[in-house]
Amino acid sequence: MSKLKLQHISKSYGTNHVLQDVSFHVDDGEFVSIVGPSGSGKSTLFQLIGGLYAPDHGDITLDGNSVNNSRGHISYMPQNPSLLPWRTILQNVLLSSEIVGSKDTGNALELIEKAGLGGYEDAYPHQLSGGMKQRVAFIRSLNSPQSIICLDEPFSALDEFTRFEMQGWLLAIWEDYRKSVLFITHNIDEALYLSDRILILSNKPASIKKEIINPFPRPRKEELLLSDEFMKLKREIHYELRG
Ligand SMILES: Nc1ncnc2c1ncn2[C@@H]1O[C@H](COP(=O)(O)OP(=O)(O)OP(=O)(O)O)[C@@H](O)[C@H]1O
Ligand SMILES: [Mg+2]
Predict the structure, then answer these.
(1) Closest Cα to atom 16, ligand 1: which residue?
(2) Quick check: 100 pLDDT over 90?
(3) Residue 94, φ and ψ in degrees, nearest 5
(4) Is residue 123 in a domain?
(5) Is the confidence at residue 102, as pLDDT, over 80?
(6) What is the separation of C-alpha 20 from the centre of its chain, rounded to a whole number of angstroms?
C-alpha cells in the first residue's frame, strides 16, 4: 500500500483553476520530488496534503485513510520558514514534537548542532539570517513524529555551498530514518541528486506531465553531478519543463 496517495485532485481558488486531475503516490520510505513552473500549484498541492484546504475533486489518503481537509498527519515545511518569533531556536525546533506531547530535547539539540546552528539554541528568529531560519524550519520538520515529510523548497535561500552541504545531510538522515519524503524544488540538480522519482508538473492548471524514475544508484557521490548520464537526464527534464 502506498504511504501517500493522491487520486484525481483538482483545485481552484475562485476562477483561478490551479490543479487539474493530479494523481501520484509516494511509497513507504520513498523520496519523491516535484518540479514545476512557478505558480503552477506546487505549494497548493502541499496545502491540500496538509489538510489546510480541501480539494474540489479527488481524494488524498495516507496509509489508506482519507486525510482530505484533515490536519496533523504530515510534517510540513512551508516555503516561508514560519518560525514563532517569541520562541527561541530550540523552542521552535521542539514545537513539532511538543504538539504530540513529547518533552525530549536530546534529538533537537543534536539536529541543531548538525545543521550548523550550535550556539544559537537560545537565540530568537530575528537574530538569524534567512538561510539560518530556513534550516531551523527544516530541522523542525525532521524532528516531528510523522512518517512523511513534505518540504517546500527547503534550501532555496541558501548559497550553493551550504545548499550542497544540507542536501548531503538530508540524504544521510533520510538513509538512517527512511521516512517518506515529498520534496518541492526548482533546482533540477537537487531533484536528481536526492530523489527516487521526479514528478514534472505542467503549467497551471497543473497536472503531472511526466514521471522520471531516477536511475542513479545510492549512495550518490558529488562526482555524479558532473557525469554525462546526469547531464543528459538534467537536459531532458529541463526541456520537459520548458516545452
Ligand atoms: N490561498 C490562496 N488563495 C488564493 N489563491 C492562491 C492561494 N494560494 C495560491 N494561490 C494561487 O494559486 C496559484 C498557484 O500558487 P502556488 O503557490 O501553489 O504555486 P507554486 O507552484 O508553489 O509557485 P512557486 O514555485 O512560485 O512557489 C497561483 O496562481 C496563486 O496565485
Ligand atoms: Mg510554492
Answers:
(1) 41
(2) no
(3) -75, -15
(4) no
(5) no
(6) 21
- Tell me, rounded to whole angstroms, the distance of Cα 189 from its chain centroid: 15
Which ligand minimizes its atom distance to the CA of 52?
1
Q: Whose CA is nearest to atom 8 of ligand 1?
A: 44
Question: What CATH number has the domain bearing residue 8?
Answer: 3.40.50.300
Q: DSSP string covering 49-92, please?
A: HTTSS--SEEEEEETTEE-TT--SSSEEE-SS----TTS-HHHH
Within a 10 A sphere around the Cβ of 120, how many other Cβ atoms?
18
Average pLDDT of span 10-21? 98
| Residue ranges in the chain assigned as alpha helix (H) | 42-49, 89-98, 106-114, 130-142, 160-177, 188-194, 228-242
User: Do the domain assignments include residue 80?
Assistant: no
Q: Is residue 235 part of a domain?
A: yes
Q: What domain range includes position 50?
A: 1-74+148-154+179-243
- The finding on whether 202 has its CB within 6 A of some atom of ligand 1 is no
pLDDT bin (cut points 50, 70, 90) of residue 36 is: very high
Coil, helix or strand for 210? Answer: strand
Grid cell locating 52: 489546510
3-state DSSP: the chain helix, strand, coil percent, rounded to 5?
35, 25, 40
Q: Is residue 11 part of a domain?
A: yes
Distance between CA 194 and CA 202 in Å, rounded?
21
Number of structural domains (the chain) is 1
